[in-house]
Amino acid sequence: MKTADLFKWHDYQTEIILLNVRWYGCYSLSCRGLGEMMMERGLDVDHSTINFWALQYSPEVDKHIRRPLKPNQ
Predict the structure, then answer these.
(1) What pLDDT is attached to residue 70?
(2) Residue 33 Cα distances to 68, 70, 73, angstroms
(3) For position 61, what pLDDT does the model report?
(4) Is residue 7 part of a domain?
(5) Which phi-psi region, left, alpha or beta, contains residue 72 (left: φ > 0; alpha: ψ -120 to 50)?
(6) Which one, of 65, 12, 61, 62, lies nearest residue 41 by Cα?
(7) 51/40 Cα distance (integer angstroms)
(8) Residue 44's Cα: distance from chain center in Å?
(9) Whole-number pLDDT of residue 47
(10) Which of 17, 37, 38, 66 is deepest in the core (most CB within 10 A)?
């Protein structure tokens, strides 16, 4: 599935969603903390929205960023 199709009907730009999902997965940040960080940058994103993004899109993002693992020979 292409990235544009994955975020087709959302109110926020794809980059904002991916940034929040990445920060949530890579760093020890809470959804409330990410919401506050977005507020500091002028974006009003509720923490429950960020939580939805993290749960919904983390597996898809993980699939695209991880290199295929080769079995040991």
Answers:
(1) 60
(2) 32, 37, 44
(3) 79
(4) yes
(5) beta
(6) 12
(7) 18
(8) 16
(9) 95
(10) 17
Please give the residue range of the domain that contains residue 37: 3-65
**pTM (predicted TM-score):** 0.74
CA distance 62 to 54: 11
Place of tokens 């926020």: 12
Question: What's the token pair of residue 71?
Answer: 């079995």
Which pLDDT value is given to residue 31?
A: 95
Flag residues of the chain having pLDDT under 70: 1-10, 67-73
Q: Is residue 23 part of a domain?
A: yes
What torsion, rounded to 10 degrees, do the Cα atoms 34, 37, 43, 49 define?
Answer: 10
Q: How many domains does the structure of the chain reveal?
A: 1
39 domain residue, yes or no:
yes
pLDDT single digits (tens) 25-39: 889 899 999 999 999
Distances (CA, A) of 31 to 24, 51, 52, 64: 7, 6, 10, 22
